Amino acid sequence: MEKTIILENGLHLTYVESFWKQNRKIFINGKEIRKISKTEFVYGEDNENLITIKGNQYKGISVNANGKDYEICPKMPWYVYLLFVAPVAFIMIFGNIPALVKVFPVVGGLVGGLISCAISSVGLCMYYKISNKKLALLVQFCIALLSIFACYLVGLAIISAVQK
Q1: Which of 16, 32, 128, 141 has its CA 20 to 30 A from that of 98?
Q2: What angle do CA 59, 61, 66 make, to 5 degrees?
Q3: Closest CA to 26 of 64, 76, 59
Q4: What is the dihedral of CA 129, 130, 131, 134, to 10 degrees?
Q5: What is the DSSP secondary structure assignment for residue 59, as one 8-state letter?
Q6: How far is CA 113 from the centre of its chain?
Q7: Dist. CA 155–CA 115, nearest whole Å
C-alpha cells in the first residue's frame, strides 16, 4: 500500500507498506527517512522530528508527525468483515445438512470452511489495494461467490468419485 498526504508545513509524506512482509517505510518529499524502531521514524538535520505510526490496515493506520495526527487509511468497515465471514459460515453450516447437500452439493465442515476462508481472505487483503471503494466491495462480493463456487466444485468432485 502506498499513500501520500500533505503535512501542515507543506511537506509531502508518503507511507509505503509491503504487502508480503508488512515492512513500513516513510518518505518525506521523495526521500526515505531513518527508521529508529518498528513504528518510529526521524527526519531533519539533527533528527529532531519524530514520526510515529499507529495501527494496521485492518484497524486503520494513523501517523503522528510533530504532535499532529494524520489518517493514512481508515478502519475497515463492518460490512467488509461480513463479506468475509458470510461465505465461510454459509459453507460450514450448509455443507453439514444432508438434505441441502443433495440439492446443492458443496463440501462443508472443516474442509469447506478452510477452502472458503482461504479464498475469502484474499478479498479481505485486496480491500485497501483498490482505491474505488464501490469497486472494492464488488470484488469482495465476487470473491465470496467464488469461494462458494469452489466448494461446490469440490463437492461435485467428491460425489463423482464416490459414485464410481
Answers
A1: 141
A2: 140
A3: 64
A4: -140
A5: T
A6: 19
A7: 12
- Please report where in the chains the cell 458443496 appears, as a residue: 106
CA distance 46 to 110: 56
Task: Read off the pTM.
Answer: 0.69
Distance from C-alpha of 149 to C-alpha of 106, rounded to nearest angstrom: 8
Q: How does pLDDT run across 126-140, given as a tens digit for each residue?
A: 887 787 889 988 999
Helix, strand, or coil (residue 129): coil
Note the residue count of the chain: 164
Model confidence over 1-37: pLDDT tens digits? Answer: 788 888 888 888 898 887 677 788 889 888 888 889 8
Helices (H) and strands (E) in the chain, counts: 4, 9
Distance from C-alpha of 26 to C-alpha of 34, rounded to nearest angstrom: 8
Residue 37's Cβ-side half-sphere holds a number of Cα atoms within 13 Å equal to 7
Task: Decide: 50 and 66 in contact? Cβ < 8 Å.
Answer: yes
Could you state, in order of their start, the residue ranges of all structural domains in the chain? 2-73, 78-163
Beta bridge partners of 26: 15
| Exposure of 102 in the CB half-sphere (CA atoms within 13 A) | 2
